[in-house]
Amino acid sequence: MENRFSRILSKTETLISGIFLIAACVLVFTSVVLRVFWDYSSSIMEEAVRYLIVWCIFIGASLALKNDKHITIDILLKRLPEKIRIGFQTLAFLLGLGLCLFIFFKGVNLVWHSYLISEKSTSAWRMPMFIPKLAVPVGAILISFRFLEKIYLNIRWLRKERT
């Protein structure tokens, strides 16, 4: 059962990652056409593609977790009774949540440091680097929410089984 916030978040993540992916594809196509026909290469376009892909990866990781699309090694878990399997899953989700929160706080420090020193990209674009680096804490918090959602659903299932 999915709540309203989760549905809105999923649609927003899908929309944003889709727009970023399409933009990256258009930029790559444009870059190739410019290189082949006019022997022109733009470091700005290449840099923009990298940043868009990084954002797509972090947002997509959240969607993949929500839809159980991450790679898992579950050969042993599949053979366990359902209650024990759910317990192990919950433990794994708690560990993942802890890791994501660690990455979130480190990412915030990374972004803040980049902002304080006015770090800019080395290309002609001179983009403030805190903007692409924001993908780290934003992605970590999105994934953390998905872990919390999974933990909540597992605990609810375990409680329902107990009664």
Automatic annotation (TrEMBL):
Residue ranges annotated for the Tripartite ATP-independent periplasmic transporters DctQ component domain, each copy included: 25-155
MF terms in GO: transmembrane transporter activity
Membrane-traversing stretches: 12-36, 48-65, 86-105, 125-148
Amino-acid biosynthesis as UniProt keyword: no
Membrane topology: Multi-pass membrane protein
Entry keyword annotation includes Transport: yes
Chief place where the protein resides: membrane
Protein name per UniProt: C4-dicarboxylate ABC transporter substrate-binding protein
Source species of the chain: Effusibacillus lacus
